[in-house]
Write the structure tokens for this entry.
Amino acid sequence: MSKVHNFSAGPCILAPEVIEGAAKAVKELDNIGLSLIEISHRSKEFIAIMDEAQNLVREILDVPSNYSILFLQGGASLGFYMTALNFMKEGGTAGYLNTGAWSKKAIKEAKMVGNVEVVASSEDANFNYIPKEYPVSTSWNYLHLTSNNTIFGTQIKNFPVSKIPVICDMSSDILSRKINVADFDMIYAGAQKNMGPAGTTLYIIKNDFLGKSGRAIPSMLDLGIHADKGSMFNTPPVFAIYTCMLTLKWVKENGGLAAMEKRNEDKAALLYNTIDSNPLFEGTAAKEDRSNMNVTFVLTDDTNKDEFDKMWNKAGISGVKGHRDVGGYRASIYNAMPKESIQVLVDVMNEFANKFA
Ligand SMILES: *Cc1c(COP(=O)(O)O)cnc(C)c1O
């Protein structure tokens, strides 16, 4: 079988070692005669896995000791609602930066809980840039950001310095670059873009930010309860957490976030340079806000679109069709995407340009 170059936006590419390790553990975990998915989450084996996953997050992201690290369920989509429920006070207001489809969903859920002020929005330009100057009121309970806009291919490069707590959905660029966790009161991220399979969501929460909403919160949505119980309030998604742990190990063994960031910049530059140097292609995001994870582009002329689609298909490329809200193409080039696969796409683009320019 020839190699498939997996550019899927999510769930998406994982390192081969991670897939291998996960498959092995499903058969049998560390020579204990049992599968990872048939042992108690309270067994010493699984408790060690949970501890290791949390410790690796703390080490790799340099998480301060006054933050809790949780692996929960419900996806980032439940995180939208839980964020508001746990951190918006009765009658309180939160500020939201609207930079794309996921921000909009976060806003929609928060409005069910309290008052939302949209501080700025790039919706008028189909979310092709990140608004940078906006007012923030010190009376708000928090400011909510989306670090990387998976669908529109934009990414916040410099996080705003804020006087109020900042909560950030980092689902599609967690572990892709260095961040200063202390700048955020909460970070959350669905695992399935850069960290593991679908099924778990990482929360990194400043402990003294918890428990202040004054609301009655159902147990399963109460981040304070999950923090108290170390992500073991109910049965955690053991397979997803194990596989995230393998990815975290892989990140560490491959040089940590500094190395990931450098590699990701290098990979993205290869693709963006091809788009920019070629009149048949056009990037859809403002240059200064371009994502290093999701590269969105269109053909400047659709006459030979079928030909281009045939060419990348034939080269073994999968998952580059753009989201319906943007059209064109989206190449998702997460941590595990090797530069060689991007080179295959670049070669196809150059071949297409030579043929039709
Ligand atoms: C994919 C994605 C989500 C949704 O994640 P689920 O885990 O499917 O709920 C939220 N935010 C961003 C930025 C995403 O890319």
